[in-house]
What does this fold into?
Amino acid sequence: MDRRSMLMMPFAGTLALRGGKSASTATTSYAASAAPAEKPRRTNKCIELLEQGQPVYCTVGTGGYEEGKKLAETPYDMIGYDMEHSPLNIPGLREFMQGLKDGGPTKSGHLTPTVIPVLPVGGWDEATLHANYWMCHQVLDTGAHGVYLCHAGDPGAVRTVVRSTRYPFNRIGIGPECPEGRRGAGGEPHAAGIWGMTVPEYIKKADLWPLNPEGELMIAIKCEDKYALTTCEKTCAVPGVALAEWGPGDMGMSLGMPLAEEFGPLEMRRARARVLAAAKVNHLNFLDAANVHNIEDEIREGVTVLMCDEAALEKGRRFTKRTMPW
It folds into this structure.
């Protein structure tokens, strides 16, 4: 798949790459994968891989229970559940998570792949996120493993997402740049069931990684337009963020180049380089699209979360000598 094709797909030009296969067919060639050699150390499969220094591979989900059951067999480690360009569908997400659980575990032994739903609200300003904090609460109560914020241009908006995903008793990192959490009680029983643990175990683990090394939740941000680009050093520095991307589809539109190839115009190359640099300085993981021709170069450059087809996925795993089954 060429880069122009990548950029013309939905989900900000990166998070919709499924190697040209639907969610229902993406697992066909992987049915014979080996059973896990040992019990997983973490609930969140992506965190476990990243702590091993291994890249992770991401696909997209949008459906309900049946799609969840099918994607329980996905070769990808992470699922971005799209509610940015698909409807805000908390009941559907809840059913999707149950389908993943019922169709699992994964071949690595994790109960589900990592699921990071994309919020349909942009991080343009703090007031917007303050008014929509409830989305974070409801997404996490489904048993998802974090939240993804689009158009993350305001550090205050990012801090509000961090506050909305943390319980007030989580004290690690609390300070001027990381105010006390505001997530409320009540949604733990269902989420704990999806994670295969008791409510006390869930509330202990449901904190943000890597801010809390024992946490199992992740916040991802998209610095995907010219406004977010000018503040990416500040947004990537907000405590509690784990992952950043530059969203080439939206970035190209914002820069007046809606059909620009990802590494074509100089402005696009500079935008990617700036967000990648901000992620590295703040020790964040970086998401980008890749293909079978460039995936080794992407990994060498420091891309740790990759959107690619299955051929590139297999090549990347061989390149890093990954041992964890999918």
Remarks:
- The first helix runs from residue 3 to 8.
